[in-house]
Amino acid sequence: MAYFFKRYHVPGTPPGTLNITAPESRIPLKMHLVDYTEQEYLEKELATAEECHEYLERKSVTWIHIQGTIDRDTLTGFGKLFGLHTLSLEDITNLGQRPKIDSFEDQLFVIMSLPAISENVVTIEQISFFLGKGYVISFHEGESDPFTPVRNRLRNRAGKLREKPADFLLYLLLDIVIDQGFPLFESLGEDIEALEDELLDSPGKSTLEDIHNLRRHLLLLRRMLWPQREVINFLIRNDQGFIDEKTIIYFHDCYDHAVQILDMLEAYRESTTNMLDVYLSSVSNRLNETMKVLTVIATLFMPLTFIVGVYGMNFSVNEQSPWAMPELRWYYGYPFIWALIIAVAGGMWLYFKRKHWW
Amino acid sequence: MAYFFKRYHVPGTPPGTLNITAPESRIPLKMHLVDYTEQEYLEKELATAEECHEYLERKSVTWIHIQGTIDRDTLTGFGKLFGLHTLSLEDITNLGQRPKIDSFEDQLFVIMSLPAISENVVTIEQISFFLGKGYVISFHEGESDPFTPVRNRLRNRAGKLREKPADFLLYLLLDIVIDQGFPLFESLGEDIEALEDELLDSPGKSTLEDIHNLRRHLLLLRRMLWPQREVINFLIRNDQGFIDEKTIIYFHDCYDHAVQILDMLEAYRESTTNMLDVYLSSVSNRLNETMKVLTVIATLFMPLTFIVGVYGMNFSVNEQSPWAMPELRWYYGYPFIWALIIAVAGGMWLYFKRKHWW
Amino acid sequence: MAYFFKRYHVPGTPPGTLNITAPESRIPLKMHLVDYTEQEYLEKELATAEECHEYLERKSVTWIHIQGTIDRDTLTGFGKLFGLHTLSLEDITNLGQRPKIDSFEDQLFVIMSLPAISENVVTIEQISFFLGKGYVISFHEGESDPFTPVRNRLRNRAGKLREKPADFLLYLLLDIVIDQGFPLFESLGEDIEALEDELLDSPGKSTLEDIHNLRRHLLLLRRMLWPQREVINFLIRNDQGFIDEKTIIYFHDCYDHAVQILDMLEAYRESTTNMLDVYLSSVSNRLNETMKVLTVIATLFMPLTFIVGVYGMNFSVNEQSPWAMPELRWYYGYPFIWALIIAVAGGMWLYFKRKHWW
Amino acid sequence: MAYFFKRYHVPGTPPGTLNITAPESRIPLKMHLVDYTEQEYLEKELATAEECHEYLERKSVTWIHIQGTIDRDTLTGFGKLFGLHTLSLEDITNLGQRPKIDSFEDQLFVIMSLPAISENVVTIEQISFFLGKGYVISFHEGESDPFTPVRNRLRNRAGKLREKPADFLLYLLLDIVIDQGFPLFESLGEDIEALEDELLDSPGKSTLEDIHNLRRHLLLLRRMLWPQREVINFLIRNDQGFIDEKTIIYFHDCYDHAVQILDMLEAYRESTTNMLDVYLSSVSNRLNETMKVLTVIATLFMPLTFIVGVYGMNFSVNEQSPWAMPELRWYYGYPFIWALIIAVAGGMWLYFKRKHWW
Amino acid sequence: MAYFFKRYHVPGTPPGTLNITAPESRIPLKMHLVDYTEQEYLEKELATAEECHEYLERKSVTWIHIQGTIDRDTLTGFGKLFGLHTLSLEDITNLGQRPKIDSFEDQLFVIMSLPAISENVVTIEQISFFLGKGYVISFHEGESDPFTPVRNRLRNRAGKLREKPADFLLYLLLDIVIDQGFPLFESLGEDIEALEDELLDSPGKSTLEDIHNLRRHLLLLRRMLWPQREVINFLIRNDQGFIDEKTIIYFHDCYDHAVQILDMLEAYRESTTNMLDVYLSSVSNRLNETMKVLTVIATLFMPLTFIVGVYGMNFSVNEQSPWAMPELRWYYGYPFIWALIIAVAGGMWLYFKRKHWW
User: Fold this and answer.
1) Most A-contacting residue of D195, D254, D277 (CB-CB within 10 A), to test interface
2) CB-CB under 8 Å, B11 with A180
3) Is-contact D84 D105, C-beta < 8 A?
4) What are the pLDDT digits (tens) for E266-316?
5) Are residues E264 and E295 in the same domain?
6) Which terminal residue of chain A has fewer beta carbons within 10 Å of its beta carbon, N or C?
7) Would you call D273 an interface residue with chain A, using a CB distance cutoff of 8 Å?
8) Contact criterion met (CB < 8 Å) for E332 and C323
């Protein structure tokens, strides 16, 4: 997950220029149409944008989901058919957008971020939605379709879900996108708890690296998740009346989830800041321990080495002088020196004992 | 107290799905009905939701308290009887919710967090309330019933309390939940003061661990207590008119308590941040002390060891040369060396004295 | 000054329960009544609440000041006489309240914090006020009466002051409470400057302790002084019309003082944060100095000790071999070694000189 | 990029005084006029301000771009011709202004910052715009003209672009200025990622320097880029009606870009703060590693040196005493000492092994 | 520049009490009157407040500037003549006020802070203004008159400036006060850049002291400069209509300057925070360098000293045993030991080389 993960145009490019993914890195395109009323239900794979023309005039809810990399012609085809603004089409192709909502005369255009974690790597994919009278169009340039559960529920349950208008379908889709945060943060929460144990037990270089990586992920997630709250809030305020009064309570629920996720994000961020501070203190603590070992050893052996050094001097060659190291010639000289050594070492030991150095 | 302590559904689950606790970890269910007017007072243990049907039409205040883990049937039973929204029922079962308030046409739905501390472990339990015309329903999936004092007071005092409408009962219940913060923060305040004494006297590894744990608790408490202020504030604004004008002054009192608790929380948080900084400085200070001991010892004995090393050289084997360590053959050579040693040691001692190293 | 300094009820206590100080720690009670118009002035010590009954109906300003610990009967006596709300009476007895203002139909209830510093210990006492039509009641559970200057001025000057209504009297009292901040912060400012000098000259363990204590005091003062600004602001907004238009300019002045004090508080807080950072850097700096001394000594004497160690080897016992330490048998061997020692020491000295180590 | 990069007047200079660049550091002046309607298109190099007089009355969009250092006469010439406020003219010459927007009766005056990066040096140049009825004037005291792409597009495409009014031209110019942030932040993002790798692998003095420089650049960029968001926001609010309703959606797009750039700026800033913390921990970690090496060496060799020192003592000169170092005279004395040395070294090795020191 | 630099009254002093500077530290008083219309211009030194009476009734703009310490009689003289509020007069004498604006019925009262830097010491002086119908009064208790340029311009240019009303004169005076920030921050900006160079090249104790002083100055400047923005903003909002519509654009310019100065202040503050962090890292870095030198020396010489210590043992006295240090008696024993020493030293050297320690 890089710091800069936005696709953009060279400054000066005309507004509305599409930024189509280069052919070699394209994800195969699948266009799926679902059309339903309370009684009827229909699914269809689309080959071109024009095929969905006939479903638009019917009094049903039409949902077109475009999975994979769209090509220029198909995108402009949809643009013409539904009257989509060129700036919105440009935003769909410039991946890495900040989540946002634009309201046009007869459409809402929503960009969301779909976070995912797999094998400790966090990824964020862009999902775009158009909500119009009786239809929802969703674009997702990613490998796997996140909306399969919705399609299953629409297919199976005849009743309730299919009675509701297109804005309720938008709610169902946005709800899935936002709820992806729960498993993600559950996983990150476990990582933090594991790191905290490591931090106090045995902080090493890899602990520091892990904390730093975690912070980095949280920083980038934050950039993508905060604006989502604003998007849902805009839908709740519902100034343009795109959302039915009965659906708004559901968006409130969605908003609560977004806020809970952000609460966790902020708590995690603060917690990792603390961890860096604690890490530094831990390392300083261990440095102190290391230094104490060194100091004890040096303090113990330096005086002793000095003592034995004294009696290594060769003054005894001067055999005439009674002042030339008479100790060497004492009968109990050697045992006396050992007694001295033991006394000095014992004194040191008592000194460190009193200083609580072990 | 874990970082992630929310129960949630797999993304894509239909809205309103209940998340019933697995049978093995259920807490035994107790449903208690209290029904009172100024003159009458009645208590009853309920077996099913339907039993409370008869009390609903009477002009009394009905309070149903559900303690323990509710099962799916009973919960949907209450849902149908009182017309509760399925999203609210879902929130009751998804424990670990952020405190919030939802207002429906004829009901208020409130989620609160009940903090508690026992043996240095902080726990947070979820309590949910419905306030409707003439009734309050409270749900608490926990071991011990926090509302016993209210029930006692209702039972004993015929007068004042029983005259008041259902919103006053809600105030009494919320007040208990919020006031739990006072004993909690009194206990945490004592912990902080004990830690501060330890911090400056004898900072050790366990001090760091304690500070870190305290910060973690405060961080998680904050996540749960801040939204409670908003909940009470919403009740005071009273846009839907669920609260009687005369009760509002009591909710003001409740709000003041919530704010005082948050004030303490923020002061504690900041104080523990300071403690981490002071800890680091303290450890650095002690490292410096350790290093000074080492430096003094090394500076004292290294020159002395060098001196005695010099006279350990064997140049005296060359007995022909007058230049071959003539000191060894001086009459007062050995005492002279001791004088030199004492002079060097004394000089060092004066140097460190002047540098205020002890 | 403890982190938790609030008196509170056990959760579940009925609202309006008084929390009277235990008899053994009571401060003797003094109740002082002042009643004045432009022409007349009267002072009286009260024994019971009822004695002030007669002054209430007169068209004068009545000020009742209660100094010391009030007992239950007297407090409820005042409560009945002036129609005070039971929640307000509870707040008067629950010391350690956050400053706040409550407005009732015909009364304002204000709680303020009176900070004081004596011998480096900061204390905060609670002062409560009721402002009603023609009267002010003030409660202060403390040893010394802070309002003596006001009483003196009322007594002495017949004119101006006594013309003004009861809200001006409230201003005079609040102004004294807030202006206590100036001498307090003047004293703290001097402490900070003294600490800063110490910090850069000779940072020791006591410096750290002093900075930490200062921060702690500022933290707790902040908790009490920020809400006072809100209280005065509420009085200036004057939504209920308790304050005369002509008095408002005086409350503006009071507000300016409160803001100045908070400005200083925040500046002091930030300044002490800086001091902690500087302290850590200072300690690290001194550690580096200590280490340099050690390194210089070790680097100087270790090679020399090695050299003299070489010539302490006993290879000369092998008198047959010309390879067995021939240096020992050189005529100028010993002076040569000293030359070597001096050369090595000089080289080291030049090396450290070039590295600017002294 | 200096901290203080504003050109200003001595305090007390009359408002509206021009601050013309000294002749020696002037950039050659080029004045370019473009005048177009849907059908027609005209380009012209201007020599004086008066030459553009004739184009003002026509119903076309006139764009005058002034590249390089303007002289006093030409600037006041434009001032008179278009009725520009003297304070705005002063702002054009006082380079290093904060981006801002001023609205006059019939003109908008906009100041923007054009950031650029070349060879790791970030520069910020000031660009000023006037938007009036049917004309845009742009001033840029810089070497290279950033608006060449706009001119090319106007020249080539007859249709769409040329239909739009002058406010759309302003959008095109502002869009280029703001979009310069994308390549800039892409480049900075790569720098940050490179630094992060270095930080954990091999943090050195140059890493610290690089982090500090990056922070400094971000700090200064922030000062210039935050107000640009406000400028665009002001244009969107469109209180004076200078902007056509159809153009506003384009300014929304522009605003989104500005917000995305600020989001990245803040994320980068926070990320570099983290890096400083991680750096400090890394350095402490490495200090600990260094100390461990020292401690292991000292702990290993100091006891051994003591042991061999003992047997370097000359007590054996006293050949009469059986207590005078009898070990020296043992048959296996020397091998025994080696065994002792190896045992001590091995013991130490096991001790460090158990402490996980390598 | 002290932390506490406010002059204040003892709590309990009556509102409106003047706080006149003690005679010994008074600055000589100069009262200067300027009275002008478009055609006429008059200057006069005043001896008493009453002398300006005659100019008040004329339809001219009257500006009275009081430089130095005013005495009680003169100040109350002005107070009576112009109807100034006693609280404002008190504020004029209580130096060290926070910048603020008070609006009375027919007057505006403004307090500003005049920052100045001379020889690295920042000072802040208080300037007060009254704006009334046709007059401005300014008070400055300082040595040097900052408004000389305005007086010169009024004297010299007959036209434009003199046409404008009194509020434009207030703008000219406030503009000078605010623009003093530019040279001040230019000077501080240079200090910061010099410190940054020092910081990375050779951080010493004085660097730390300089950073700390700089932070302190910025902290205190902030306390005084932030409220000035609010003052100007209040004038722009112009709720009381004291400011002419045509003058407002000039106050906007003034506001822009105030904001630019605050932007710089905040950037400088953040930059010095960074510098403290970088300083700590730099010191740690250098500590590490010091430790490496020590470790290399110790690691190199300790094993060598051990080796030569071994051959300093006196086992050779036992001439009977073939195990008693046979190496000493080898023919090439001594060269062999040197080879060993060189091999060990070389091995260490390679080890450190591989670890990139030099």
Assistant:
1) D277
2) yes
3) no
4) 999 999 999 999 999 999 998 988 898 899 989 899 999 999 999 998 888
5) no
6) C
7) no
8) yes
Closest CA to E257 of D188, A106, D6, C174: D6
Cα separation, E81 vs E58, in Å, equals: 15
Low-confidence ranges of chain D (pLDDT < 50): none
A184/A299 same-domain check = no
Residues in C 170-209 with any Cβ partner in E closer than 8 A: 175-176, 179-180, 182-183, 185-186, 188-190, 192-193, 196, 200
Does any domain span residue C1?
no
> Which CA distances in Å does B65 have to A178, B44, C57, D210?
33, 11, 50, 63
Is some CB atom of chain D closer than 8 A to the CB atom of A22?
no
* Count of domains for chain A: 2
Cβ atoms < 10 Å from Cβ of A332: 12
E352 touches chain D (CB under 8 A): no
Cross-chain CB nearest to D286 (options E288, E299, E323): E288
Report which of C231, C242, C230, C240 is spatially closest to residue C166, judged by C-alpha positions. Answer: C242
Q: D83: alpha, beta or left, given left = phi > 0 and alpha = psi -120 to 50?
A: left
Instruction: Please tell me the total number of residues recorded for chain C in this structure.
Output: 358
Q: Mention every residue, 6+ apart, whose C-beta is less than 8 A from residue E296.
A: E352, E357, E358
Which domain-ending residue is among A261, A282, A303? Answer: A282
Instruction: Pick the last residue of a domain from C265, C282, C299.
Output: C282
A298 contacts on D by Cβ (under 8 Å): 298, 302
3-class SS of residue B112: strand
Q: Which residue of E has its CA nearest to D317?
A: E317
Among D6, D110, D280, D313, most E C-beta atoms within 10 A, so best to mutate, is: D6
Q: E277 and E146, same structural domain?
A: yes
Q: Which of A161, A310, A315 lies closest to B333 in CB terms?
A: A315
Look up tokens 């720098």; give the residue: D191
For residue B164, which of C16, C72, C305, D124 has the smallest C-alpha distance?
A: C16
Q: Are residues A79 and A138 in the same domain?
A: yes
Averaged pLDDT, groups of 10, chain B, 358 residues long: 85 88 88 91 91 85 95 93 94 93 93 88 93 95 92 80 91 95 94 92 88 93 94 92 91 95 95 93 90 90 92 84 85 91 92 80
Give the C-alpha separation, C210 to D301, whole Å. 43
For residue E120, being part of any structural domain is answered with yes
Nearest-neighbour CA in chain A from D310: distance (Å): 5
Per the rule left: phi > 0, alpha: psi between -120 and 50, beta: everything else, A11 is: beta
Closest to A100 in 3D by CA, of E188, D256, C298, C299 = D256
Interchain CB contacts (distance < 8 Å): A and B? 183
CATH number at residue E329: 1.20.58.340
The H or E element spanning position D197 is helix D181-201
C–E: how many Cβ contacts below 8 A?
182
Q: Is residue D337 part of a domain?
A: yes
